[in-house]
Amino acid sequence: MATSNPRIFDTDKRIRLGIWGLGRGMSFYSTCALLNVDVVAGCDYNEHMRSNFLQANPGAFVSADAEAFLAQDMDAVLLATFCPAHAGDAIRCLNAGKHVLSEVTAFHTLAEGVRLVEAVERSGKVYNLAENYPFTAANMYLARKWKEGLFGELMYAEYEYVHECRSLAYTYIDGLPVQPGNTVHNWRSWLQFHYYCTHSLGPIMIITGERPTRVVALPARPSLAGYLLGNEEGMGGIAPSLINMSNGAVVRNLMGATTNDTHIQRLWGTLGSAELNVGRELTLRLGGSGGSPKLEVRPRWDDLGELAAKTGHGGGDFWMVYFFARQILTGEPAPFEIFAACDVTIPGILAYRSSTEGGTPYTVPDFRQPEARAAWREDHWAQQHFDPNAVFPVTCDAGITQHFSATMAALIRYSTAYRAYADWERVASDLARPAELLPIVENLANQYHDLLTTYALARRIVAACPGTDGARVLAEMLALGGEAVATTPAFRTALLARRDALKAEYAHG
Protein backbone atom coordinates (compact mmCIF):
# COMPACT_ATOMS: atom_id res chain seq x y z
CA MET A 1 0.00 0.00 0.00
CA ALA A 2 2.38 2.67 -1.23
CA THR A 3 1.77 6.26 -0.29
CA SER A 4 3.07 9.72 -1.09
CA ASN A 5 2.03 11.13 2.28
CA PRO A 6 4.55 13.25 4.24
CA ARG A 7 7.21 11.42 6.21
CA ILE A 8 6.23 11.16 9.90
CA PHE A 9 8.77 8.73 11.35
CA ASP A 10 12.48 9.20 10.67
CA THR A 11 12.94 5.69 9.32
CA ASP A 12 12.32 3.73 6.16
CA LYS A 13 11.26 0.68 8.14
CA ARG A 14 7.74 -0.54 7.37
CA ILE A 15 5.34 -2.44 9.62
CA ARG A 16 3.46 -5.30 7.98
CA LEU A 17 0.02 -5.34 9.59
CA GLY A 18 -2.87 -7.78 9.57
CA ILE A 19 -6.38 -6.74 10.55
CA TRP A 20 -8.38 -9.35 12.47
CA GLY A 21 -12.00 -8.22 12.48
CA LEU A 22 -12.77 -6.36 9.26
CA GLY A 23 -15.79 -4.41 10.51
CA ARG A 24 -14.44 -1.96 13.06
CA GLY A 25 -10.90 -2.90 12.03
CA MET A 26 -11.28 -1.32 8.60
CA SER A 27 -11.95 2.05 10.25
CA PHE A 28 -8.19 2.28 10.76
CA TYR A 29 -7.26 1.28 7.21
CA SER A 30 -6.68 4.69 5.65
CA THR A 31 -4.73 5.86 8.71
CA CYS A 32 -2.22 3.04 8.32
CA ALA A 33 -0.96 4.46 5.04
CA LEU A 34 0.17 7.62 6.83
CA LEU A 35 2.29 5.82 9.42
CA ASN A 36 4.80 3.39 7.88
CA VAL A 37 2.16 0.64 8.08
CA ASP A 38 1.31 -1.68 5.19
CA VAL A 39 -1.87 -3.73 5.55
CA VAL A 40 -0.99 -7.15 4.11
CA ALA A 41 -3.65 -9.48 5.54
CA GLY A 42 -7.18 -9.60 6.87
CA CYS A 43 -9.33 -12.08 8.77
CA ASP A 44 -13.07 -12.19 9.39
CA TYR A 45 -15.66 -14.97 9.59
CA ASN A 46 -18.08 -12.82 7.59
CA GLU A 47 -17.77 -13.14 3.81
CA HIS A 48 -19.03 -9.66 2.99
CA MET A 49 -16.46 -8.11 5.36
CA ARG A 50 -13.72 -10.07 3.59
CA SER A 51 -15.04 -8.91 0.21
CA ASN A 52 -15.00 -5.27 1.32
CA PHE A 53 -11.42 -5.69 2.54
CA LEU A 54 -10.25 -7.06 -0.79
CA GLN A 55 -11.94 -4.24 -2.68
CA ALA A 56 -9.91 -1.77 -0.63
CA ASN A 57 -6.73 -3.83 -0.71
CA PRO A 58 -6.54 -6.02 -3.86
CA GLY A 59 -3.95 -8.75 -3.65
CA ALA A 60 -3.81 -8.88 0.14
CA PHE A 61 -4.26 -12.19 1.94
CA VAL A 62 -7.69 -12.65 3.49
CA SER A 63 -9.25 -15.62 5.25
CA ALA A 64 -11.90 -16.71 7.70
CA ASP A 65 -9.29 -19.03 9.27
CA ALA A 66 -7.46 -17.39 12.17
CA GLU A 67 -4.61 -19.90 12.08
CA ALA A 68 -3.97 -19.29 8.39
CA PHE A 69 -4.12 -15.55 9.06
CA LEU A 70 -1.64 -15.69 11.95
CA ALA A 71 0.74 -17.78 9.86
CA GLN A 72 1.21 -14.89 7.41
CA ASP A 73 4.43 -12.89 7.17
CA MET A 74 3.45 -9.84 9.19
CA ASP A 75 4.78 -7.92 12.18
CA ALA A 76 1.60 -6.89 13.95
CA VAL A 77 -2.14 -7.43 14.26
CA LEU A 78 -4.85 -4.82 14.68
CA LEU A 79 -7.33 -6.82 16.75
CA ALA A 80 -11.01 -5.93 16.36
CA THR A 81 -12.71 -9.26 17.03
CA PHE A 82 -15.68 -9.75 19.38
CA CYS A 83 -15.20 -7.75 22.58
CA PRO A 84 -15.30 -10.64 25.11
CA ALA A 85 -12.76 -12.55 22.98
CA HIS A 86 -10.08 -9.84 22.92
CA ALA A 87 -7.80 -11.32 25.58
CA GLY A 88 -7.74 -14.82 24.14
CA ASP A 89 -7.27 -13.54 20.60
CA ALA A 90 -4.52 -11.13 21.68
CA ILE A 91 -2.66 -13.97 23.41
CA ARG A 92 -2.87 -16.04 20.21
CA CYS A 93 -1.33 -13.14 18.29
CA LEU A 94 1.45 -12.64 20.85
CA ASN A 95 2.22 -16.36 20.87
CA ALA A 96 2.50 -16.18 17.08
CA GLY A 97 5.15 -13.48 17.44
CA LYS A 98 2.98 -10.48 16.49
CA HIS A 99 2.68 -7.07 18.10
CA VAL A 100 -0.95 -6.31 19.06
CA LEU A 101 -3.13 -3.22 18.87
CA SER A 102 -6.38 -4.37 20.52
CA GLU A 103 -9.75 -2.71 20.39
CA VAL A 104 -11.40 -2.06 23.75
CA THR A 105 -11.78 -3.63 26.18
CA ALA A 106 -8.59 -5.55 26.94
CA PHE A 107 -10.17 -8.56 28.69
CA HIS A 108 -13.43 -9.87 30.11
CA THR A 109 -12.27 -11.36 33.44
CA LEU A 110 -9.49 -10.61 35.90
CA ALA A 111 -7.98 -14.05 35.26
CA GLU A 112 -7.80 -13.22 31.55
CA GLY A 113 -6.07 -9.96 32.46
CA VAL A 114 -3.36 -11.83 34.35
CA ARG A 115 -2.85 -14.21 31.42
CA LEU A 116 -2.66 -11.29 28.97
CA VAL A 117 -0.09 -9.34 31.03
CA GLU A 118 2.14 -12.36 31.34
CA ALA A 119 1.79 -13.24 27.65
CA VAL A 120 2.95 -9.71 26.78
CA GLU A 121 5.90 -10.03 29.16
CA ARG A 122 6.91 -13.43 27.76
CA SER A 123 6.60 -12.36 24.15
CA GLY A 124 8.62 -9.15 24.34
CA LYS A 125 6.13 -7.73 21.83
CA VAL A 126 4.32 -4.42 21.88
CA TYR A 127 0.75 -4.49 23.18
CA ASN A 128 -1.44 -1.37 22.98
CA LEU A 129 -5.11 -0.83 23.74
CA ALA A 130 -6.91 1.24 21.07
CA GLU A 131 -8.69 3.53 23.54
CA ASN A 132 -9.22 6.59 21.35
CA TYR A 133 -11.44 9.02 23.29
CA PRO A 134 -8.58 10.73 25.18
CA PHE A 135 -7.08 11.83 21.88
CA THR A 136 -9.45 14.47 20.59
CA ALA A 137 -8.13 18.01 20.22
CA ALA A 138 -9.89 19.12 23.42
CA ASN A 139 -8.76 16.22 25.58
CA MET A 140 -5.16 16.44 24.36
CA TYR A 141 -5.22 20.17 25.08
CA LEU A 142 -6.51 19.52 28.60
CA ALA A 143 -3.79 16.90 29.15
CA ARG A 144 -1.07 19.38 28.15
CA LYS A 145 -2.43 22.12 30.39
CA TRP A 146 -2.95 19.70 33.29
CA LYS A 147 0.68 18.60 33.01
CA GLU A 148 1.73 22.25 33.07
CA GLY A 149 -0.07 22.64 36.42
CA LEU A 150 -2.84 24.95 35.20
CA PHE A 151 -5.60 23.06 37.05
CA GLY A 152 -3.70 21.99 40.17
CA GLU A 153 -4.59 18.62 41.71
CA LEU A 154 -7.61 16.60 40.62
CA MET A 155 -10.52 16.90 43.06
CA TYR A 156 -13.46 15.40 41.16
CA ALA A 157 -14.47 14.53 37.59
CA GLU A 158 -17.58 13.46 35.71
CA TYR A 159 -17.10 11.78 32.35
CA GLU A 160 -19.71 9.86 30.44
CA TYR A 161 -20.25 7.66 27.43
CA VAL A 162 -24.03 7.54 27.09
CA HIS A 163 -24.80 5.94 23.75
CA GLU A 164 -28.12 4.34 22.82
CA CYS A 165 -27.00 1.91 20.10
CA ARG A 166 -29.92 -0.53 20.25
CA SER A 167 -29.80 -1.32 16.53
CA LEU A 168 -26.27 -2.75 16.89
CA ALA A 169 -27.76 -5.70 18.75
CA TYR A 170 -29.35 -6.73 15.46
CA THR A 171 -26.87 -5.54 12.80
CA TYR A 172 -23.18 -5.64 12.07
CA ILE A 173 -21.22 -2.42 12.47
CA ASP A 174 -21.84 -1.55 8.81
CA GLY A 175 -25.64 -1.70 9.31
CA LEU A 176 -26.32 -5.02 7.59
CA PRO A 177 -28.66 -7.29 9.61
CA VAL A 178 -27.00 -10.12 11.51
CA GLN A 179 -27.09 -13.47 9.73
CA PRO A 180 -28.65 -15.98 10.06
CA GLY A 181 -31.63 -13.69 10.41
CA ASN A 182 -33.02 -15.43 13.49
CA THR A 183 -29.91 -14.62 15.53
CA VAL A 184 -28.47 -11.47 17.12
CA HIS A 185 -25.06 -9.84 17.45
CA ASN A 186 -22.48 -11.93 19.27
CA TRP A 187 -21.90 -9.47 22.15
CA ARG A 188 -23.67 -6.15 21.57
CA SER A 189 -26.95 -7.97 22.20
CA TRP A 190 -26.08 -8.72 25.83
CA LEU A 191 -22.88 -7.12 27.20
CA GLN A 192 -23.56 -5.16 30.41
CA PHE A 193 -22.73 -1.48 29.94
CA HIS A 194 -20.27 -1.21 32.86
CA TYR A 195 -17.84 -3.38 30.89
CA TYR A 196 -17.62 -0.65 28.27
CA CYS A 197 -16.05 1.84 30.64
CA THR A 198 -12.92 2.92 28.81
CA HIS A 199 -14.26 5.75 26.63
CA SER A 200 -15.20 7.74 29.73
CA LEU A 201 -12.51 6.64 32.19
CA GLY A 202 -9.67 6.71 29.67
CA PRO A 203 -9.67 10.48 29.09
CA ILE A 204 -9.54 11.19 32.85
CA MET A 205 -6.51 8.93 33.22
CA ILE A 206 -4.65 10.51 30.31
CA ILE A 207 -5.51 14.10 31.23
CA THR A 208 -4.65 13.88 34.93
CA GLY A 209 -2.04 11.10 35.00
CA GLU A 210 -3.91 9.35 37.82
CA ARG A 211 -4.94 5.68 37.86
CA PRO A 212 -8.11 4.15 39.39
CA THR A 213 -7.69 2.47 42.77
CA ARG A 214 -11.21 1.71 44.08
CA VAL A 215 -14.65 1.31 42.50
CA VAL A 216 -18.26 0.92 43.60
CA ALA A 217 -21.57 0.82 41.70
CA LEU A 218 -25.21 0.47 42.67
CA PRO A 219 -27.76 -1.70 40.85
CA ALA A 220 -30.24 0.02 38.52
CA ARG A 221 -33.32 -1.66 37.08
CA PRO A 222 -35.23 0.49 34.50
CA SER A 223 -34.40 -0.38 30.89
CA LEU A 224 -35.24 0.82 27.40
CA ALA A 225 -37.48 -1.22 25.12
CA GLY A 226 -36.00 -3.55 22.55
CA TYR A 227 -33.01 -4.91 24.45
CA LEU A 228 -32.80 -8.66 24.93
CA LEU A 229 -31.41 -8.28 28.45
CA GLY A 230 -32.60 -5.70 30.98
CA ASN A 231 -30.57 -2.99 32.68
CA GLU A 232 -29.11 -5.22 35.37
CA GLU A 233 -27.73 -7.62 32.75
CA GLY A 234 -27.47 -5.87 29.39
CA MET A 235 -26.83 -2.61 27.55
CA GLY A 236 -30.31 -1.13 27.73
CA GLY A 237 -29.95 0.91 30.91
CA ILE A 238 -27.69 3.39 32.64
CA ALA A 239 -25.89 3.85 35.96
CA PRO A 240 -22.55 5.35 37.05
CA SER A 241 -19.67 3.83 38.90
CA LEU A 242 -17.79 5.89 41.48
CA ILE A 243 -14.03 5.54 41.30
CA ASN A 244 -11.25 6.67 43.61
CA MET A 245 -8.15 7.76 41.73
CA SER A 246 -4.58 7.35 42.95
CA ASN A 247 -4.44 10.86 44.43
CA GLY A 248 -7.66 10.26 46.42
CA ALA A 249 -10.01 12.14 44.07
CA VAL A 250 -13.42 10.76 43.11
CA VAL A 251 -14.64 10.21 39.55
CA ARG A 252 -18.21 9.59 38.43
CA ASN A 253 -17.90 7.31 35.41
CA LEU A 254 -21.22 7.08 33.57
CA MET A 255 -21.98 4.50 30.87
CA GLY A 256 -25.14 3.14 29.35
CA ALA A 257 -28.10 3.81 27.10
CA THR A 258 -30.96 6.16 27.76
CA THR A 259 -33.17 8.62 25.89
CA ASN A 260 -30.42 11.26 25.66
CA ASP A 261 -27.03 10.40 24.17
CA THR A 262 -24.46 12.62 25.87
CA HIS A 263 -20.69 12.84 26.16
CA ILE A 264 -20.36 15.62 28.72
CA GLN A 265 -17.02 15.87 30.52
CA ARG A 266 -16.26 17.96 33.60
CA LEU A 267 -13.10 18.13 35.69
CA TRP A 268 -12.41 20.06 38.89
CA GLY A 269 -8.87 20.74 40.03
CA THR A 270 -7.66 22.70 43.06
CA LEU A 271 -6.75 25.67 40.82
CA GLY A 272 -9.20 25.47 37.93
CA SER A 273 -11.88 23.47 36.19
CA ALA A 274 -13.01 22.47 32.70
CA GLU A 275 -16.29 21.59 31.02
CA LEU A 276 -16.60 19.95 27.63
CA ASN A 277 -19.62 18.82 25.67
CA VAL A 278 -17.95 16.70 23.02
CA GLY A 279 -18.30 18.25 19.59
CA ARG A 280 -19.14 21.62 21.10
CA GLU A 281 -17.35 24.16 23.23
CA LEU A 282 -14.61 23.76 25.84
CA THR A 283 -14.91 26.18 28.75
CA LEU A 284 -12.44 26.74 31.57
CA ARG A 285 -12.91 28.45 34.92
CA LEU A 286 -9.51 29.69 36.04
CA GLY A 287 -8.51 31.67 39.10
CA GLY A 288 -8.76 29.28 42.01
CA SER A 289 -12.33 29.96 43.17
CA GLY A 290 -15.87 28.95 42.34
CA GLY A 291 -16.64 32.43 41.07
CA SER A 292 -13.49 32.86 38.98
CA PRO A 293 -13.86 33.91 35.33
CA LYS A 294 -15.32 31.23 33.08
CA LEU A 295 -14.42 31.53 29.40
CA GLU A 296 -14.50 29.47 26.24
CA VAL A 297 -11.19 28.38 24.73
CA ARG A 298 -10.26 26.98 21.34
CA PRO A 299 -8.11 23.91 21.89
CA ARG A 300 -5.19 23.58 19.51
CA TRP A 301 -3.99 20.22 18.25
CA ASP A 302 -0.67 18.67 19.10
CA ASP A 303 1.79 18.27 16.23
CA LEU A 304 0.19 16.19 13.43
CA GLY A 305 -3.23 17.14 14.72
CA GLU A 306 -4.52 18.51 11.44
CA LEU A 307 -3.63 15.21 9.82
CA ALA A 308 -5.30 13.32 12.68
CA ALA A 309 -8.47 15.40 12.37
CA LYS A 310 -9.17 13.83 8.97
CA THR A 311 -9.56 10.37 10.56
CA GLY A 312 -12.29 8.79 12.72
CA HIS A 313 -13.47 9.54 16.26
CA GLY A 314 -12.28 13.15 16.27
CA GLY A 315 -8.74 12.14 15.35
CA GLY A 316 -8.50 9.42 17.96
CA ASP A 317 -8.18 6.61 15.40
CA PHE A 318 -5.08 8.27 13.93
CA TRP A 319 -3.38 8.57 17.31
CA MET A 320 -4.03 4.91 18.15
CA VAL A 321 -2.12 3.74 15.08
CA TYR A 322 0.51 6.48 15.53
CA PHE A 323 1.35 5.53 19.14
CA PHE A 324 1.42 1.84 18.23
CA ALA A 325 3.70 2.33 15.22
CA ARG A 326 5.93 4.70 17.19
CA GLN A 327 6.44 2.17 19.97
CA ILE A 328 7.31 -0.56 17.46
CA LEU A 329 9.67 1.70 15.50
CA THR A 330 11.29 3.71 18.31
CA GLY A 331 10.51 1.93 21.58
CA GLU A 332 8.75 4.97 23.06
CA PRO A 333 5.84 3.61 25.18
CA ALA A 334 2.31 4.37 24.07
CA PRO A 335 -0.22 5.86 26.52
CA PHE A 336 -2.21 2.62 26.70
CA GLU A 337 0.50 0.00 26.95
CA ILE A 338 -0.45 -3.21 28.72
CA PHE A 339 -0.59 -1.90 32.30
CA ALA A 340 -2.59 1.21 31.46
CA ALA A 341 -4.85 -1.10 29.45
CA CYS A 342 -5.42 -3.08 32.65
CA ASP A 343 -6.03 0.07 34.69
CA VAL A 344 -8.77 1.25 32.32
CA THR A 345 -10.42 -2.16 31.84
CA ILE A 346 -10.56 -3.57 35.40
CA PRO A 347 -12.86 -0.88 36.89
CA GLY A 348 -15.64 -1.81 34.46
CA ILE A 349 -15.52 -5.49 35.39
CA LEU A 350 -15.48 -4.70 39.09
CA ALA A 351 -18.19 -2.02 38.76
CA TYR A 352 -20.58 -4.55 37.28
CA ARG A 353 -19.62 -7.05 39.96
CA SER A 354 -20.20 -4.41 42.64
CA SER A 355 -23.65 -3.62 41.25
CA THR A 356 -24.68 -7.28 41.35
CA GLU A 357 -23.70 -7.35 45.02
CA GLY A 358 -25.72 -4.29 45.99
CA GLY A 359 -22.76 -1.90 45.98
CA THR A 360 -19.79 -3.79 47.40
CA PRO A 361 -16.66 -1.65 46.90
CA TYR A 362 -13.61 -3.23 45.25
CA THR A 363 -9.96 -2.27 45.24
CA VAL A 364 -8.64 -2.00 41.68
CA PRO A 365 -5.54 -4.22 41.57
CA ASP A 366 -2.35 -2.90 39.97
CA PHE A 367 -1.19 -5.66 37.64
CA ARG A 368 2.28 -4.14 37.50
CA GLN A 369 2.76 -5.95 40.81
CA PRO A 370 3.17 -9.76 40.59
CA GLU A 371 1.53 -10.19 43.99
CA ALA A 372 -1.57 -8.31 42.78
CA ARG A 373 -1.81 -10.64 39.80
CA ALA A 374 -1.44 -13.69 42.02
CA ALA A 375 -4.52 -12.66 44.02
CA TRP A 376 -6.70 -12.60 40.87
CA ARG A 377 -5.07 -15.31 38.79
CA GLU A 378 -8.01 -17.72 39.11
CA ASP A 379 -10.80 -15.16 39.27
CA HIS A 380 -13.07 -16.00 36.36
CA TRP A 381 -16.10 -14.02 37.53
CA ALA A 382 -17.97 -12.63 34.52
CA GLN A 383 -21.39 -11.83 33.19
CA GLN A 384 -23.03 -14.93 31.79
CA HIS A 385 -23.03 -14.82 27.99
CA PHE A 386 -26.34 -14.69 26.16
CA ASP A 387 -26.53 -17.27 23.38
CA PRO A 388 -27.10 -15.29 20.16
CA ASN A 389 -28.57 -18.40 18.57
CA ALA A 390 -31.23 -18.85 21.28
CA VAL A 391 -33.54 -15.96 20.43
CA PHE A 392 -36.07 -18.49 19.15
CA PRO A 393 -36.37 -22.21 19.95
CA VAL A 394 -35.81 -24.67 17.13
CA THR A 395 -39.55 -25.39 17.14
CA CYS A 396 -40.25 -21.94 15.66
CA ASP A 397 -40.67 -21.79 11.90
CA ALA A 398 -37.31 -20.66 10.49
CA GLY A 399 -39.10 -19.48 7.36
CA ILE A 400 -40.65 -16.77 9.54
CA THR A 401 -37.90 -16.13 12.11
CA GLN A 402 -35.22 -15.69 9.43
CA HIS A 403 -36.63 -12.18 8.97
CA PHE A 404 -36.14 -11.25 12.64
CA SER A 405 -32.84 -9.33 12.62
CA ALA A 406 -33.71 -7.28 9.53
CA THR A 407 -37.21 -6.61 10.88
CA MET A 408 -35.91 -5.57 14.28
CA ALA A 409 -33.34 -3.20 12.77
CA ALA A 410 -36.03 -1.55 10.63
CA LEU A 411 -38.56 -1.54 13.47
CA ILE A 412 -36.19 0.39 15.73
CA ARG A 413 -35.88 3.07 13.04
CA TYR A 414 -39.60 3.38 12.30
CA SER A 415 -40.94 3.06 15.84
CA THR A 416 -38.66 5.82 17.11
CA ALA A 417 -39.64 8.00 14.14
CA TYR A 418 -43.27 7.56 15.18
CA ARG A 419 -42.45 8.23 18.82
CA ALA A 420 -40.60 11.44 17.95
CA TYR A 421 -43.57 12.67 15.92
CA ALA A 422 -46.22 11.70 18.47
CA ASP A 423 -44.41 13.13 21.48
CA TRP A 424 -43.29 16.39 19.86
CA GLU A 425 -46.86 16.98 18.74
CA ARG A 426 -47.82 16.94 22.42
CA VAL A 427 -45.59 19.95 23.08
CA ALA A 428 -45.73 21.59 19.64
CA SER A 429 -47.31 24.77 21.01
CA ASP A 430 -44.39 25.15 23.41
CA LEU A 431 -41.64 25.02 20.79
CA ALA A 432 -39.37 28.05 20.70
CA ARG A 433 -38.92 27.51 16.95
CA PRO A 434 -42.10 25.83 15.66
CA ALA A 435 -40.61 25.27 12.19
CA GLU A 436 -38.33 22.63 13.71
CA LEU A 437 -41.32 20.29 13.90
CA LEU A 438 -41.51 20.06 10.09
CA PRO A 439 -38.51 17.73 9.50
CA ILE A 440 -39.77 15.41 12.26
CA VAL A 441 -43.17 15.14 10.57
CA GLU A 442 -41.62 14.79 7.11
CA ASN A 443 -39.31 12.03 8.33
CA LEU A 444 -42.25 9.92 9.47
CA ALA A 445 -44.38 10.70 6.42
CA ASN A 446 -41.56 9.73 4.05
CA GLN A 447 -41.12 6.39 5.81
CA TYR A 448 -44.77 5.63 6.47
CA HIS A 449 -45.24 2.96 3.78
CA ASP A 450 -42.15 1.07 5.00
CA LEU A 451 -43.36 1.48 8.59
CA LEU A 452 -46.59 -0.34 7.78
CA THR A 453 -44.75 -3.17 6.03
CA THR A 454 -42.31 -3.56 8.94
CA TYR A 455 -45.02 -3.44 11.60
CA ALA A 456 -46.97 -6.16 9.79
CA LEU A 457 -43.95 -8.43 9.51
CA ALA A 458 -43.02 -7.86 13.16
CA ARG A 459 -46.55 -8.73 14.24
CA ARG A 460 -46.42 -11.90 12.15
CA ILE A 461 -43.24 -13.05 13.91
CA VAL A 462 -44.71 -12.23 17.33
CA ALA A 463 -47.83 -14.22 16.56
CA ALA A 464 -45.85 -17.19 15.28
CA CYS A 465 -43.43 -17.36 18.23
CA PRO A 466 -45.22 -16.18 21.39
CA GLY A 467 -43.29 -16.19 24.65
CA THR A 468 -39.84 -16.05 23.01
CA ASP A 469 -37.17 -13.40 23.54
CA GLY A 470 -37.53 -12.36 19.92
CA ALA A 471 -41.28 -11.90 20.22
CA ARG A 472 -40.84 -9.88 23.40
CA VAL A 473 -38.45 -7.29 21.95
CA LEU A 474 -40.53 -6.96 18.78
CA ALA A 475 -43.64 -6.37 20.88
CA GLU A 476 -41.81 -3.78 22.98
CA MET A 477 -40.83 -1.82 19.89
CA LEU A 478 -44.31 -2.11 18.39
CA ALA A 479 -45.72 -0.63 21.59
CA LEU A 480 -43.11 2.15 21.53
CA GLY A 481 -44.07 2.79 17.92
CA GLY A 482 -47.77 3.14 18.67
CA GLU A 483 -48.80 0.19 16.52
CA ALA A 484 -52.50 0.39 17.39
CA VAL A 485 -52.68 4.06 16.31
CA ALA A 486 -49.98 4.33 13.64
CA THR A 487 -51.41 1.59 11.41
CA THR A 488 -54.88 3.13 11.01
CA PRO A 489 -56.00 4.98 7.85
CA ALA A 490 -57.10 7.91 10.04
CA PHE A 491 -53.56 8.32 11.36
CA ARG A 492 -52.08 8.40 7.86
CA THR A 493 -54.61 11.02 6.78
CA ALA A 494 -53.85 13.19 9.81
CA LEU A 495 -50.08 12.78 9.37
CA LEU A 496 -50.10 13.87 5.73
CA ALA A 497 -52.41 16.76 6.47
CA ARG A 498 -50.10 17.91 9.27
CA ARG A 499 -47.10 17.67 6.98
CA ASP A 500 -48.77 19.71 4.26
CA ALA A 501 -49.91 22.38 6.70
CA LEU A 502 -46.44 22.75 8.19
CA LYS A 503 -44.84 22.90 4.72
CA ALA A 504 -47.25 25.61 3.67
CA GLU A 505 -46.41 27.61 6.76
CA TYR A 506 -42.66 27.05 7.11
CA ALA A 507 -41.10 25.41 4.06
CA HIS A 508 -40.26 28.77 2.50
CA GLY A 509 -39.72 30.67 5.73
Q: Can you walk through the features of this model?
A:
By secondary structure, the protein is of the alpha/beta class. It folds into three domains: 15-129, NAD(P)-binding Rossmann-like Domain (Rossmann fold); 133-303 and 334-376, Dihydrodipicolinate Reductase, domain 2 (2-Layer Sandwich); 398-506, no CATH class. The chain is built from 17 helices and 15 strands. β13 and β14 form a beta hairpin. The longest helix has 28 residues, at 437-464. It is globular. The termini are far apart.
Envelope shape: globular
Strand portion, in percent?
A: 15-25%
Find the CATH superfamily of the largest domain.
Dihydrodipicolinate Reductase, domain 2
Number of strands: 15
Helix content: 25-40%
Uncertain stretches of 5 or more adjacent residues: none
**Main beta-sheet annotation:** 9 strands, mixed
Cα-to-Cα separation, first versus last residue: 51 Å
In the CATH hierarchy, the third-tier topology of the largest domain is known as Dihydrodipicolinate Reductase, domain 2
Number of domains as seen in the coordinates? 3
Strand order of the biggest β-sheet: 14-13-12-11-7-10-9-8-15
**Which second-level CATH architecture of the largest domain applies?**
2-Layer Sandwich
**Helix/strand/pairing category:** alpha/beta
Per DSSP, the total helix count is: 17
CATH class of the largest domain: Alpha Beta
